[in-house]
Design goal:
This protein has a 4-stranded antiparallel sheet with strand order 1-4-5-6, covered by helices on one side. Strands 2-3 form a two-stranded antiparallel ribbon. By secondary structure, the chain is an alpha+beta fold. The chain is built from 3 helices and 6 strands; from the N terminus they run ααβαβββββ.
């Protein structure tokens, strides 16, 4: 009986250590999961903001259908540029408001604009036949597949430094829509 008690010594200590290892792995997994969920939530927020801004410009073009060609942008508006200060007409005013929204002017924190996507840029292209391609581009949080080469808005603007995973537009996100302006006679 005494020999059996000696062989059992330390068994409960080993059980406690195994339980602590299992608990530690579980807690570490929860921390990693929380980090990934936070990243996905940020991606989702940015996409929803991009869709709101995309629909905003598409609506502005559709409402001013007679002057739709005046909405075409030669360069992307938004991040990395100064929005024009004194618009001359309704179309320029719409572009200025869209530019400010792309830069996050709708919400500020400590004097900085934080109400939009990271590096938000917008483009309006005339693709012919009364059709206009409206695009919003932004920087994603992690690399995925690059957008189609035919969508040029913000191309090569979101590549990181050498050695980072954000190369070849892998961190560029885009949403597009086509606004069709019918010729009514």
């Amino acid at each position: 009986m005494a020999s059996r008690a000696r062989s059992q010594r330390g068994a409960s200590l080993i059980e406690v250590l195994v339980a602590m290892v299992i608990l530690s792995v579980g807690l570490l997994s929860l921390v990693v999961l929380h980090g990934r969920l936070h990243l996905m939530q940020m991606e989702s927020y940015q996409r929803s903001q991009a869709l709101i801004l995309l629909n905003d410009m598409a609506s502005r073009i559709a409402l001013n259908r007679n002057d739709a060609g005046d909405y075409v942008t030669d360069v992307p508006v938004g991040a990395g540029m100064a929005c024009p200060a004194d618009p001359a007409d309704r179309q320029e005013a719409d572009i200025v408001e869209w530019c400010s929204a792309l830069q996050g002017a709708a919400e500020t924190l400590s004097g900085g604009s934080v109400g939009a996507m990271v590096g938000g840029r917008g483009c309006v292209e005339d693709i012919g036949g009364g059709d206009y391609l409206v695009t919003v581009a932004w920087q994603g949080m992690s690399p995925v597949s690059a957008p189609p080469a035919s969508v040029t808005c913000g191309a090569n603007e979101y590549d990181g430094d050498a050695g980072t995973p954000c190369v070849n537009d892998l961190c560029r996100r885009v949403v597009t829509t086509v606004v069709r302006i019918a010729t009514l006679t």
